[in-house]
User: Fold N-acyl-aliphatic-L-amino acid amidohydrolase from Phoenix dactylifera.
Amino acid sequence: MERSNRLSSYPLLRFPFLLFLLLSSSAALTAATSENANKGASFSAAEAEAAVSRFQEYLRINTSQPDPDYATAVRFLRAQADALSLESDVFEFAPGKPLLLLRWPGRIPSLHALLLNSHTDVVPAEPLKWVYPPFSAALDPSTGNIYARGSQDMKCVGLQYLEALRRLRAADFAPDRTIYLSFVPDEEIGGNDGAGRFAASEKFQKMKVGVVLDEGLASPGEEYRVFYGERSPWWLVIRARGAPGHGAKLYDGSAMENLMKSVEAVRRFRAAQFDLVKAGVKAEGEVVSVNLVYLKAGTPSPTGFVMNLQPSEAEVGLDIRVPPNADTEALERRIAEEWAPSSRNMTFEFLNKDEYLKGIEIYESIIKAFASYKGDTKDEESRAEL
Assistant:
């Protein structure tokens, strides 16, 4: 369940002032006067309500995978850009997956640009599990919460960018650097056709991007955490095979028996990683998380499944998140030798790992700029855990 609060703790109304301060506090970055800063930082009740209304309108556009309504989202965002006199272009690096790029030209084109990135697609929702319909953007008057899929990941951030620029425009602000806003597609299914192709394009190279701001976690207070790394998703499918047989007999090495041994091995690993988080030894983003997302086996029948037949195949799907300094070679060995050993007639397949391991060079360059970055060395503590 996703919800955002529209009142004092609502990040949509605080982020514009944060970005305003980011831009106006550096002489190298901006040319705003203190009078304009005060003008841009103030919010009337009507302006706040209008910002919330725009947010709700964006949330009501169903851009959930696997069939996101990108066209409607792009039309809405371009209308917002037109109202702010921002330049806009749409690129389709893959058919049916539009990427919207907005541009506010800076006064000094030779300076490196600022890119504010967000994605338009959201994950699916189960309507029956929601208090309000997931694309209603319903506002609960008793709490001020807005309920909608995408309210946190990450339509809130995309609208924060636009509201920030709205305040800057109202303050007659003129940036030295060019400011870009990118609204990319297909992030929730890997991002290869959206951000991946965009970053590799000639257009991106000509933008001369110096700093990128992307998604993070919502902040309920006035302190904003800065993230300098992100875990890579590995979507893993493990398959087991065995001889089929009558349900009344016992067999060694059946598909289900082999698979359940693997599931138990995964459970032990997950528990060990989770214990580190519970004990406060590591943060959640510093461990390898593993979550079982589906089990698949059995022979379908008109009423469900055949109950007296042992299946010849069974599989499990795992969502694995790998931190930047994890020993990926050790993790792959664990998968091959313990979770899906060929000796138990098992195989495994990564659905998207290679795309994430490629990385995007601009993000890597930002990470390496931090003093805490460990270069290409392996994290020995991570190696020991794996």
